[in-house]
Design goal:
Blueprint: H1 12-20, H2 46-56, H3 59-64, E1 87-89, H4 101-104, H5 121-127, H6 130-146, E2 151-153, H7 176-191, E3 196-197, E4 199-202, E5 215-217, H8 220-227, H9 229-236, E6 242-245, E7 249-250, E8 253-254, H10 259-269, E9 275-277, H11 287-292, H12 301-308, H13 311-316, H14 325-333, H15 339-356, H16 372-384, E10 387-391, E11 405-409, H17 434-442, E12 447-451, H18 466-481, E13 485-491, H19 512-522, E14 526-531, H20 540-543, E15 547-550, H21 558-566, E16 599-601, H22 610-613, E17 633-642, H23 643-646, E18 654-664, E19 670-680, E20 691-700, E21 705-713, E22 719-721, E23 726-728, E24 732-741, E25 744-753
Parallel strand pairs: 1-2, 2-3, 4-6, 5-7, 5-16, 6-9, 11-12, 11-13, 13-14, 14-15
Antiparallel strand pairs: 7-8, 10-15, 17-18, 18-21, 19-20, 19-24, 22-23, 24-25
Helix pairs in contact: 1-2, 1-15, 2-15, 5-16, 6-7, 6-16, 7-9, 16-21, 17-21, 18-19
The protein binds beta-D-glucopyranose (BGC).
Length: 755
């Protein structure tokens, strides 16, 4: 019998089966599998099923499981009844699994899969609604099953470090706590349906620039405090079944072979028991990858070979085909990979196959997608995710009894821009553009006109010249002058903001600022709507608009959601999950992006987002957590007490309780997103001015008051100590801050942590 690793870096249950399931190194003819083999029995505990199945597998069969069998399928083993795990891209809904985004974005009918297009991750984050994100995860998982697949490649929990990252729209913004809570909620929703999620991209994938070759140099503290918490929460709070490793390198090693991060931290310290899957074409070696704890290389088989042979893929730096059975077996023979390690890798894949239920109840498909119920979830999310940034003279909500005409203008008005580009862009059966939503809601009593305003940069050559833009801006200004109200929908689209490339600028695409200025001049009642995932530069003309809304990417129901907010059918409740800086030069990563000689130094350390703006007093255009409502909320009477004094009923780990009252002092029903920040009064080490440690949504009728309650654990007071290699909460005085945004702190109270 071989001896397992001496250091217990894997959970004890896993260690158990590695000890009891030794493998012989010579190829043998396996004995037939009896119909009543233990692993086939759903009543047997998962660890025993894994152990039993491993003991029946040949070493060749095990080695074959480390590589995918196609573009989005793992390798099945028919003899033993091990199914292929059938994947689909996400996270904003189910995307085609036919091939790379180049294939699935084409008109090719073979690549076409239709499913509900949910709002982008950044929109979901603007809802600050973990329950809704969980419901979204559940709805997506139901569609995964309806389409006969088993796994959805999401959620994306990478932090918005730089305003120019091409994939910022996929994630949940700049704050690790908000991101962690929402990521965990998504995972719970998906796993609750017996579908496998994959939280991605572990660990710090924060730019698309040279994404296969860039080496992110990040301090231990920034890793633990900013880039890892959402993955930790995925593992510890939601028990996630799979993690996808990122393309890039962190501190000198590609993620797929980054032993300190995968093996020691994710699997060791966090206690992750599921499997690690590579990003598509992100592996660069055999033994170091397997030994680091990277369990499944994707894609695989002939599809992978064909894809890798293409010049574009080679040029971009993809690498794959390292965990093929022949290479893995050769490394075992050479003594570079032990059979114990192989058992560990394969055991992780098998564990997920059993835990998810796909072994016992395969998903055969044939169900309905994009049903009325799913659309309702998408609509609610798109509505809750709209942030009202400015509402001069209470121009909103529009009073349909007083308004007779609306000019709807802009390159994003008549087209539904549902999401950013790349592997996350879902094809819905139909999508509602802002113009459609507004027309439908306006009905016959209000005349709705449309003008393009300016063509979207790079989309249609005929509209994309200075002359064409001047002409259409003039037409738009004329249309605005003749209407009671103008709604200008500007922003970006999937070819300016997407996977595989970063944004060139924070500015709006060509001509859009001029369009806004011309329309405002023609009609003082101008409402500007931002329809984009990444922050945009707020030029002087945007901030002088009567009203400004950020709808981000609203998925297929974005147009209905916008109309509901404009007409006051819904009261805005979204809050910014990311700071909107005045200009790119103000952002903390400026000067440390995209890096030089394929290295990017995360020199701003822990000062990401509001942690930077609020500590260094750099005024943003709009702060983190900001968002207006059509009603008003008053905060009062904050009481902070030690849980020991308050008595029972507190959740485990709670050290303090904070209670306060929120009142709706306006005239409409509304929902306020309340935010709890912690400020360290006595810190001797470098710490941000404050950090978000709690949030919730309170819906109140006019005049209604409610008590809000938060539990504050020691973890909320802690920082990562590189010396102690642990989270540390120093005894002393802290301040609990209750805010309506990070810069609008309404209540403060001190708390004292005893030694
Ligand atoms: C992306 C992943 C995606 C995978 C499969 C990669 O290019 O980075 O997020 O899941 O492709 O499409």
């Amino acid at each position: 019998m071989r001896i397992a690793r001496t250091v217990p870096l894997v959970p004890s249950a896993l260690l158990l089966f590695t000890l009891v399931a030794p493998v012989e190194s010579e190829a043998q003819t396996p004995p037939p599998v009896p119909a009543d083999a233990r692993y086939k029995n759903p009543g047997v505990p998962v660890e025993q099923r894994v152990s039993d199945l491993l003991s029946r597998m040949t070493i060749e069969e095990k080695a074959s499981m480390l590589e995918g069998s196609g573009w989005m399928e793992s390798t099945p083993i028919e003899r033993l009844g091990i199914p292929a795990i059938k994947m689909a891209d996400g996270p904003m809904g189910v995307r085609s699994w036919a091939g790379s985004s180049a294939i699935t974005s084409s008109a090719n009918p073979a690549a076409k899969v239709e499913a509900t297009s949910f709002p982008a991750g950044i929109t979901m984050a603007a809802t600050w609604d973990a329950q809704l994100v969980q419901r979204e995860g559940q709805a997506i998982a139901q569609e995964v099953k309806a389409l006969g697949r088993d796994m959805i490649l999401g959620p994306t929990v990478n932090i918005n470090r730089v305003p120019l990252w091409g994939r910022n729209f996929e994630g949940y913004g700049e704050d690790p706590y908000l991101t962690g809570r929402l990521g965990a909620a998504y995972i719970r929703g998906v796993q609750g349906e017996g579908v496998i999620p994959s939280v991605k991209h572990f660990a710090a994938n924060n730019e698309e620039f040279e994404r296969h070759r860039i080496d992110a140099h990040i301090s231990e503290r920034a890793l633990h405090e900013i880039y890892l918490p959402a993955f930790r929460s995925a593992v510890k709070d939601a028990g996630v079944w799979t993690v996808m490793s990122a393309y890039n390198l962190v501190n000198g090693a590609h993620l797929a072979e980054n032993k300190p991060l995968l093996h020691d931290l994710l699997q060791g310290e966090f206690g992750f028991k599921g499997f690690v899957i590579s990003d598509w074409g992100s592996t660069y070696s055999t033994a170091p990858t397997v030994n680091a704890g990277m369990d499944l290389e994707m894609p695989g088989g002939q599809r992978m070979k064909d894809w890798l042979a293409t010049a574009a893929v080679q040029k971009s730096g993809n690498s794959d085909g390292w965990l093929t059975a022949d290479k893995v077996l050769a490394e075992i023979k050479a003594g570079h990979i032990t059979e114990v390690t192989l058992n560990d890798n394969v055991g992780r894949i098998l564990r997920v196959i059993f835990m998810s239920g796909i072994f016992d109840h395969p998903h055969t498909g044939g169900g309905e997608v994009d049903t009325a119920e799913q659309r309702a979830v998408a609509l609610r999310a798109a509505t809750e995710g709209i942030v009202l940034l400015r509402n001069q003279d209470a121009i909103l909500p529009l009073d349909s009894t007083k308004i007779h005409s609306i000019a709807v203008i802009g390159p994003n008005a008549a087209v539904a821009r549902t999401g950013g580009g790349g592997s996350s862009l879902v094809r819905p059966k139909s999508a509602v553009a802002p113009l459609d939503g507004i027309k439908e809601r306006a009905g016959s009593a209000i005349k709705v006109t449309y003008a393009l305003g300016v063509g979207m940069e790079g989309e249609n050559p005929a509209d994309d010249t200075p002359e064409a833009r001047d002409k259409s801006i003039k037409e738009a200004a004329d249309a605005a002058a003749q209407a009671d109200v103008a709604v200008v929908v500007v922003g970006r689209y999937s070819k300016i903001e997407g996977e595989g490339f970063d944004l060139k600028t924070m500015d709006l695409p060509a001509g859009q600022d001029d369009l806004i200025a011309a329309v405002e001049k023609a009609n003082p009642h101008t409402i500007v709507v931002l329809n984009t995932g990444d922050p945009v530069t707020m030029k002087h003309d945007i901030t002088s608009a009567s009203a400004l809304l950020d709808m981000f990417y609203g998925g297929e129901e974005g147009g209905h959601a916008l109309a509901a907010i404009l007409f006051g059918d819904a009261n805005p409740s979204g809050k910014l999950p990311v700071t909107l800086p005045k200009r790119f030069e103000d952002s903390p990563a400026y000067g440390h992006y995209p890096g030089e000689n394929l290295k990017v130094d995360y020199a701003e350390g822990i000062y990401v987002g509001y942690r930077y703006y609020d500590t260094k007093n750099v005024e943003p255009a709009f702060p983190f957590g900001y968002g207006l409502s059509y009603t008003k909320f008053e905060y009062s009477n904050l009481q902070v007490a030690e849980v020991a004094e308050v008595g029972g009923g507190a959740p485990p780990g709670a050290a303090f309780s904070a209670t306060f009252t929120v009142k709706n002092s306006g005239t409409r029903v509304g929902t306020e997103v309340i935010q709890v920040y912690i400020h360290d009064f006595h810190t001797k080490i470098d710490r941000p001015f404050h950090e978000l440690k709690g949030f919730g949504r309170l819906t109140l009728n006019p005049g209604e008051s409610r008590l809000a309650h938060f539990a504050i654990g020691r973890d909320a007071l802690s920082y990562w100590s590189p010396e102690k290699k642990d989270w540390v909460a120093n005894p002393g005085a802290y301040e609990v801050q209750i805010g309506s945004s990070s810069r609008d702190i309404r209540l403060r109270a001190a708390l004292k942590l005893k030694p």
